[in-house]
Amino acid sequence: MSDPTDTERRKRRDLSIQAQDEAIGLAIARAYASGEIPGAESFGKPMKPDGFAETPGEFRMPFKVLRNADAVPPEIGMFRKRAQLRAALETAADADARAALQRQLNELEQALALRLEGMRVSGRL
Predict the structure, then answer these.
(1) What is the rounded distance in angstroms from the CA atom of residue 112 to the CA atom of residue 86?
(2) b/e string for 61-73 if b means 16 or more Cβ within 10 A?
(3) pLDDT in tens, 36-85
(4) Which of 21, 38, 88, 91 has the highest CB neighbour count under 10 A?
(5) Residue ranges of the DnaJ homologue subfamily C member 28 conserved domain (predicted)?
């Protein structure tokens, strides 16, 4: 038997996609009919924004992969560390501890600014 033509492959692919769409539609219809979907806490409410629309296009897929893998982009980790340092700085008891925390915060903010500026200049942000 000869190799299927491109048209035949496309027809099979389209039928496969159609079958998947129908299976998904059927599963949704069953869940709705059983009350599973209408009983959901978020049913009928607007979806909570997840920042997807605000994320630059070139970062959407990599960030989605990282999020699905429960991994955090390094920049986000830096922002979180900055928040921790700021909170620790506000509650620091003595001047020496505050000075050390302020120095760490300054270094982190400089590293973060340089990283974000590099991303902006390179067109990655």
Answers:
(1) 15
(2) eebeeeeeeeeee
(3) 888 888 888 887 777 777 777 777 888 788 888 888 778 888 889 999 99
(4) 88
(5) 27-89
Q: State residue 86's pLDDT score.
A: 93
Q: Count other C-beta atoms under 10 Å from residue 101's C-beta.
A: 19
Q: Which amino acid is at 106?
A: N
Q: How many residues does the chain have?
A: 125
pLDDT value for 44: 86
Which pLDDT band, with edges at 50, 70 and 90, does 124 fall under? low
Q: Which two tokens stand for residue 11?
A: 């027809």
Nearest CA to 51 out of 40, 64, 39 is that of 64
Q: DSSP E strands: which ranges in 52-120?
A: none
- Computed over its alpha carbons, how large is the radius of gyration of the chain? 25
Written as one letter, the residue type at 46 is P
Tally the C-alpha atoms within 13 A of residue 19's C-alpha that lie toward its C-beta: 6
Question: Which run of H or of E encompasses 57?
Answer: helix 57-68
The tokens of 100 are what?
A: 């050390």
